[in-house]
Amino acid sequence: MILISEIKRGSCIRFQGNLCIVLDFQRFQTGRGGSNVRTKLKNIQTGKIFEHTFGAEERVDEQTIQRRPFQFLYKDDTGYYFMNTQNFEQITLSEEQIDAPEFLIDGMEGIEVVYHEEEDIPLFAELPTIVETIVTYTEPGLRGDSSSISLKPAIIESGARIMVPIFIEQGERIRVNTKTREYYERVK
């Protein structure tokens, strides 16, 4: 058990019997009272995000997690299949356990699967923050329409729909931010 003031972003805690990841926290002090810690937590089992305020002297049960490198293999009706790149173990995860499943491409590497160390069970998968992909479809940009930052819809090779600048053409390689789900830059 640790003091709530000792947590940090990405910590895994057991809260009300559920495993939760700390997405954000903020320490603040009320007028006369003691300080508090306002947290944003994500329940790993349900995927729900909620806020909770702890007193500064409250203790939480911190859980040990481990990040392991995986490669995405394929998806079917039963789930998403991943392979550990170190020992070739294969696991299946549900869509709710993946932070941005719409950007997964068969054979994609650099995915981290977070395991609960004591129980040795996979909790969730995180894609890299920036992924390279190909624009499979987009309308051509109109000439002279570049006076402002204009965006147009595009479909990338994973099938996800994103907005791209008007100068991006079909067949180009681009980078996409999986956290914000937005165009990041053109690959040169």
Describe the fold and architecture.
- With 188 residues, the protein is mostly beta strands.
- It has 3 domains: 2-63, SH3 type barrels (Roll); 65-126, Nucleic acid-binding proteins (OB fold (Dihydrolipoamide Acetyltransferase, E2P), Beta Barrel), CATH 2.40.50; 130-186, OB fold (Dihydrolipoamide Acetyltransferase, E2P), CATH 2.40.50.140.
- The chain has strands spanning 2-3, 12-15, 18-29, 35-43, 49-55, 59-63, 65-76, 79-84, 90-93, 111-116, 121-126, 130-138, 151-156, 161-165, 173-177, 182-186.
- Strands 1-6-2-3-4-5 form a 6-stranded antiparallel β-sheet, with no helix packed on it.
- β10 (111-116) and β11 form a beta hairpin.
- The radius of gyration is 20 Å and the shape is flat.
- The termini are far apart.
List the helices and strands and how they pair.
Blueprint lengths: L1 E2 L8 E4 L2 E12 L5 E9 L5 E7 L3 E5 L1 E12 L2 E6 L5 E4 L17 E6 L4 E6 L3 E9 L12 E6 L4 E5 L7 E5 L4 E5 L2
Antiparallel strand pairs: 1-6, 2-3, 2-6, 3-4, 4-5, 7-8, 7-10, 8-9, 10-11, 12-13, 12-15, 13-14, 15-16
Feature tags:
188 residues; mainly beta; SH3 type barrels; OB fold (Dihydrolipoamide Acetyltransferase, E2P); six-stranded antiparallel sheet; five-stranded antiparallel sheet; flat
